[in-house]
Specification:
Blueprint lengths: L1 E3 L24 H9 L5 E4 L5 H10 L4 E4 L3 H8 L10 H10 L3 E4 L2 H7 L2 E4 L4 E2 L5 E2 L1 H13 L5 E4 L7 H14 L8 E4 L9 H8 L2 E5 L2 H12 L6 E4 L2 H32 L3 H8 L22 H11 L5 H11 L1 H11 L13 E5 L14 H11 L4 E5 L7 H5 L3 E4 L2 H5 L4 E4 L4 H4 L11 E3 L14 E3 L3 E2 L3
Parallel strand pairs: 2-3, 2-5, 3-4, 5-8, 8-9, 10-11, 12-13, 12-15, 13-14, 15-16, 16-17
Antiparallel strand pairs: 1-11, 6-7, 9-10, 17-18
Helix pairs in contact: 2-4, 2-8, 5-6, 6-7, 10-12, 10-13, 14-15
The structure holds nicotinamide-adenine-dinucleotide.
The site of nicotinamide-adenine-dinucleotide has 26 residues, from helix 6.
């Protein structure tokens, strides 16, 4: 069952009438709305990262009083100065205005933040560890603190993408145990998967998507619908149970991963048979049921490569199998190595060249263009592949990443502060992230150096076939 108030946003919602009202902290719809907007009921955001900082901003922009909590001193200190450590549009302005109007506070004490707030949003990540299982450390810690500070009538929302069952089997028991309160009778529990796209996160929340929610019971769901309607203009789409809401978000990610893998496979196939994949793709996508994605040098970020792992982990636990999901991951993981091999072929005409004497320039360290987020970026894998080939030097440039502690320790790798500095005197260039700054590069800009376009963003008509190659075409004119 899926119900939505998005179809008729003008529908007047009935006042809440709970059968059980054990405390005066259970409010009517108009009271909740009024008290959040006036700042009387505070919103605590746990984790001020890529998801938490735009979420805090959306609440501040709606007039709410926000308590930000983050265990990183750097993140907390920046927020206290009205700044985010991330370049997410609109966040600095919202933080600064929240501070100026005394509606934004940063707490170090996680329990106190729970005690002082009405709505608590858990925006810390669930990672996937190297031993192939989800890492709930941050969520466990925050849930426990929230439970310790929980009061009757409070609302808790879990926001990260999680393996199905996490809210009810892990988070809820911790909160109930720590608080001694019972969900639905004494407090409300929601799962609300964050669906933001970094770089336009506030807009995504406020304007672009409905909030997907599900509660631990009908009262929680109803409270969630009221609260989320305050910031999501596209409304609230409530699904019938939390497990469905948790799964929904993973399906979004797996859909992308599998389709990118399909595009990668078909692009490689087209190369082999001498067909320009991009031309074939444009033609195929003119048919309304065909949505071929773009192939590329790899899939990165904290989301798309991770969600299939959650699905595969869950499938294993119920002795199920998700073969396509698994294969797609493997196809996408193999792309950096494939593209490096293709890039090296551009050096073949220079018969006397020896790899241990060449410098390679990688354009882009972020996992995609327009962001500074380097988590699981394919560039790291590309670096490893070139290191295996024992090239002399690897220069990395990114217009949005000015420092990277992992690269400092990497052998023969330097992070160049300027594009010119990264290109000058290099032997081979590879585009790894589709930053706008790279789209207009011409053969003159790069001194005729061979370039492998791992995101197919350049105007290939202006390049010579012997010095340019991209996925789905290989070397042009080939
Ligand atoms: N980044 C995205 O675009 C995106 C989109 C949709 C969903 N998500 C999901 O949202 C979740 C959060 O991702 P993110 O990108 O915001 O992560 P992030 O790493 O950018 O931010 C997490 C923040 O939480 C803080 N933190 C970690 N442990 C903490 C603790 N115990 N107590 C207090 N603070 C703590 C960190 O210091 C960090 O600032 C992920 O699980 C991801 O799946 C992310």
């Amino acid at each position: 069952m899926v119900s939505s108030n998005t179809k008729n946003p003008k529908r007047k919602c009935p006042e809440l009438t709970y059968s059980a009202r054990p405390s005066s902290n259970h409010f009517s719809e108009s009271e909740v709305t009024k008290k959040i907007r006036s700042g009387e009921l505070k919103v605590a955001i746990y984790g001020l990262g890529h998801v938490g900082s735009p979420m805090a901003s959306a609440w501040l922009r709606a007039g709410a009083h926000v308590i930000g909590v983050d265990k990183s001193p750097t993140v907390s200190e920046s927020a206290r100065k009205g700044k985010s450590h991330l370049p997410e549009p609109g966040v600095n302005e919202a933080f600064a205005s929240g501070l100026a109007t005394k509606r934004f506070e940063i707490y170090n004490d996680l329990v106190k933040a729970s005690h002082h707030s009405y709505l608590k949003m858990i925006c810390v990540p669930v990672l996937f560890s190297d031993n192939n299982s989800p890492d709930f450390t941050a969520v466990n810690e925050v849930s426990s603190a929230i439970g310790k500070g929980l009061k009757k009538g409070d609302v808790v929302a879990l926001n990260p993408s999680v393996p199905p069952g996490t809210t009810e089997d892990l988070v809820l028991p911790i909160i109930e145990k720590e608080s001694g309160l019972e969900v639905e009778d004494n407090f409300y529990m929601l799962y609300n998967p964050e669906r933001i796209y970094e770089g336009c996160a506030i807009k995504d929340i406020e304007e672009r998507y409905p909030a997907i929610i599900s509660g631990a019971g009908p009262k929680s769901t109803e409270v969630g619908r009221i609260i989320y309607s305050l910031i999501f203009k596209k409304g609230v789409l409530s699904v019938s149970n939390i497990r469905t809401a948790e799964t929904e978000k993973l399906l979004e990610g797996v859909y992308r991963d599998v389709n990118i893998a399909l595009a990668n496979e078909l692009a490689k196939f087209c190369e082999k048979i001498g067909v320009n994949f991009w031309e074939a793709r444009d033609a195929a996508n003119s048919q309304p049921f065909c949505h071929l994605h773009k192939p590329g040098v790899g899939v990165g970020g904290a989301c798309i490569p991770v969600y299939p792992q959650f699905i595969l982990h869950s499938a294993e636990q119920v002795k199920g199998s998700c073969d396509i999901t698994k294969l797609a991951r493997a196809v996408n993981d193999a792309m950096p190595a494939f593209c490096v091999k293709e890039a090296i072929k551009l050096l073949e005409p220079k018969k006397d060249i020896s790899l241990d004497r060449i410098t390679v320039t990688l354009l882009g360290l972020a996992f995609r263009g327009g962001v500074s987020d380097t988590r699981k970026s394919p560039t790291y894998q590309v670096i490893k592949e070139f290191q295996k080939m024992q090239v002399k030097e690897i220069r990395v440039h990114d217009p949005m990443v000015k420092a990277d502690p992992t690269l400092v320790q990497a052998q023969n790798v330097v992070l160049s502060s300027t594009l010119n500095g990264a290109i000058k005197g290099t032997d081979l260039i590879m585009i790894v992230a589709d930053h706008n700054e790279y789209r207009t590069l011409t053969p003159k800009d790069i001194d005729g150096v061979p370039i492998y376009d791992g995101r197919s963003i350049l105007d290939r008509t202006i390049f010579d076939h012997s010095t340019y190659a991209t996925i789905g075409i290989g070397s042009i004119n080939k």
